[in-house]
Amino acid sequence: MALEVGIVGPAGSGKTSLFTALTRTGGGEYGKTNVGMAPIADARLDALAQVVSARKITPATIRIQDVPGAGEAQLGNLRQVDALLVVLAGFGAGADPSGDLETFNQLFPLGHAYFGYIDVIGRQNIIDLHPGLELQLLKEARHAKKVTLRAEHHLFWRESDDDAVYSAAGTVLRADNGSGAAYIGQETDLLLNWQIDRHWSAYVGYSHFFPGDFIQETGPAGDIDFVYAALQFTF
Prior knowledge:
Blueprint: E1 3-8, H1 15-23, E2 34-39, H2 43-52, E3 61-66, H3 72-78, E4 83-92, E5 126-141, E6 144-157, E7 165-166, E8 172-174, E9 183-195, E10 200-211, H4 213-218, E11 224-233
Parallel strand pairs: 1-3, 1-4
Antiparallel strand pairs: 2-3, 4-5, 5-6, 6-9, 7-8, 9-10, 10-11
């Protein structure tokens, strides 16, 4: 039986476009549940086929559902899948080249609520493509009521190449300095959640930021690694 993955996210975030790319179909229908099969590339299978001169190759596949909305019927379909692929898109306007101050004001900044756990990027002059995947590894096992692994990825661009890159606190992280590059970089976040029993839980996470063209052209551009863990007791 093929692994089943459900694609979820807000309207207009690119779920159907991702479905089309993964299933290599002519295009899913926007606003409706689309179901397709995505082949899993395996170089070993290709090499074996050459050795035995196979006339036909049948790769392993993943069954993918592109689910619109969040109604009861749609969520019911998601209860049957093995994994969720979450697609989000973030946008914050930048300054106008005419000199008018039109940069989005995020008012109440929140650390790592939107653009990754490292808290490098804020919600100003930003475009963020944000796919994610959560897997349930264990459930109702000994010493583990539930164990999940969540993987998220962020791709960052400047909305306006005439404005700066801002931090999560709303301050200028990197001034424009005349660079025409839009690509800021990308961040990968991994988070393992372990619900031990009714009272005890733990988590451990790792995040890595890869600097892009704009960061490399305007100053120091080293990678960032962030590791964290916690043990919690709930009464």
